[in-house]
Design a protein that fits this description.
Layout lengths: L2 H5 E2 L15 E7 L3 H21 L2 E8 L16 E2 L2 H6 L5 E4 L7 H10 L3 E4 L2 H18 L3 E2 L10 H8 L5 E7 L2 H12 L4 H10 L8 H4 L2 H14 L10 E2 L7 H9 L2 E12 L8 E12 L11 E8 L3 E8 L3 H18 L15 E2 L6 E2 L1 E8 L4 H11 L4 E9 L2 E8 L2 E2 H12 L4 E10 L5
Parallel strand pairs: 1-13, 2-3, 2-5, 3-4, 5-6, 6-7, 9-11, 11-14, 11-20
Antiparallel strand pairs: 8-10, 8-12, 10-11, 12-13, 15-19, 16-18, 16-20, 17-18
Helix pairs in contact: 2-12, 4-5, 5-10, 7-8, 13-14
Length: about 450
């Protein structure tokens, strides 16, 4: 059995209610008919009988808001239900549940707030919306007594949000750490296994549809940061905004960095990490939330996650270590998660049950400067006598201890590869500033934090 298999948590079936108050036919309004919206409508149309047999609920797609009514679509996507007016869907008193799949901030935010104010259940897969306006939306849901469900916003088909929100609701979560962006994981996997450059791996990811023409949201870590904010909010019942998540992408990672990590028994991954900082005074809670490349021991289950797959590792005080793994993107995968939420909401329509929206607490966000870990760092310098002594002096001036150093010849220049002992982030950043001020330093390359066992 592989390390990953020991921690693997399979998908759970959606919740089914059998109380007599539940409404058996539920009218659904869908906002957006893109990759996810189209896949969702097709799933419901194709499997309506099976869904009803399993859940006792008949889903009726009543209206679908789209941008262009003239666009050619498959007849299975219910052309008779299409409208250009999204507000018409939200204001329709006969619609029980609104599914928001438009994406972006506006008009999605306004439409969701209108639906909640009207007492409708809302399902969304909009990570950007939740990361920026989550507290406002949850407050609105709590005020109206409506459900706001968002399983599809993180991890595609992986039932991660439901597990944290329901199954682990009573658990003292210590840390949530994972690979939550399939594009970057595919790129890093190709660099690791095929030894192709970052640029070539990105082009390949774009050709396969894993990366957008403008890949910035993925490779610069914005997508992962939004998901980290959502996961941290659920895991720690906290009000956490996207602006509070420290973020770095993978643009500076080279194949040589990954090769060096392999020699040390590590793999390079872009990780989203949300962890509780244990302090003597428990209130208010201190939470650290960050996204950055990391060197992870090859023995860790996350190190073996390849290609465009996602996986999240949850560490709880009583539950121990759990791992959730699966396809993290794609229209069908995300539509599967949205359908699970839709059935949850549908089973509550007409009953006295309502989704619980606890008041999220304000927390203190621990700044990245307080992080203590080991670091991998490359510095390109002029190959001259005394250069190493000058560089080492800068490290010493800022209390960063060098564990090991290796010099690689680059013609007239040299590359110095450093591994530090445990150091404070603020001191490492000060060291980088000092190195940039040296005339002999040509370039500072990858800075990769070490996660896991000390080197």
């Amino acid at each position: 059995m592989s390390p990953r298999d020991r921690y693997f948590v399979p998908m759970a079936a959606p919740r089914v209610r059998t109380d007599q108050g539940a409404k058996t036919q539920v009218r659904v309004g869908v906002l957006g008919l893109g990759n996810v919206g189209g896949a969702l409508v097709e799933l419901i149309a194709t499997n309506a009988d099976a869904i009803e047999a399993r859940s006792g609920v008949r889903l009726d797609i009543a209206k679908i808001a789209v941008r262009d009514l003239k666009r050619g679509r498959d007849k299975a996507l219910l052309p008779e239900c299409l409208t250009k007016d999204a507000h018409e869907v939200v204001s329709d008193e006969t619609i029980d549940i609104v599914v928001e799949l438009i994406g972006g901030l506006e008009p999605a935010r306004t439409l969701v707030l209108e639906a909640l104010a009207a007492g409708k259940q809302v399902v969304t897969a909009n990570k950007e919306l939740l990361a920026n306006f989550g507290p406002e939306l949850f407050d609105a849901a709590g005020k109206s007594g409506s459900a706001l469900l968002f399983e599809g916003s993180v991890g595609g088909a992986i039932p991660l949000v439901r597990a944290l929100r329901v199954s682990l609701a009573g658990e003292h979560i210590r840390r949530v750490m994972g690979i939550v962006n399939g594009t970057t994981n595919y790129i890093l996997s190709q660099m690791s296994e095929e030894k192709v450059s970052y640029k070539d791996a990105l082009v390949e990811a774009q050709s396969l549809g894993y990366a957008e023409r403008d890949p910035t949201a993925d490779v610069a870590g914005f997508d992962a940061a939004a998901k980290a904010a959502i996961l941290a909010g659920i895991a720690f019942n906290a009000r956490i905004g996207l602006s509070e998540v420290y973020r770095e992408g993978i643009e500076t990672i080279n194949v040589s960095d990954i090769d060096f990590a392999h020699r040390l028994g590590y793999e390079v991954k872009l990780l989203a990490i949300a962890e509780r900082i244990e302090t003597a005074v428990p209130e208010p809670p201190r939470i650290a939330v960050r996204v950055h490349p990391a060197m992870l021991p090859t023995t860790h289950p996350l190190a073996g996650v390849r290609g465009a797959f996602n996986a999240v590792f949850v560490e709880g005080e009583s539950s121990g270590e759990l791992m959730f793994y699966g396809r993290g993107a794609g229209g069908k995968a995300t539509a599967s998660a949205v359908l699970g939420d839709l059935l949850d909401a549908a089973c509550d329509v007409g009953s006295s049950a309502r989704e619980s929206h606890l008041s999220r607490v304000h927390v203190t966000i621990d700044p990245i400067d307080n992080l203590r870990t080991q670091y991998y760092l490359t510095v390109d310098v002029l190959d001259r006598p005394g250069v190493l002594a000058s560089v080492a002096t800068v490290f010493g001036m800022h209390d960063v201890s060098i564990r090991s150093m290796e010099q690689v010849g680059l013609g007239e220049d040299a590359r110095l590869v450093f591994i530090t002992h445990m150091a404070r982030e603020a001191d490492v950043q000060a060291t980088l500033g000092g190195l940039r001020a040296l005339d002999v330093v040509e370039h500072i390359g990858g800075l990769i934090r070490v996660v896991g066992h000390e080197l």
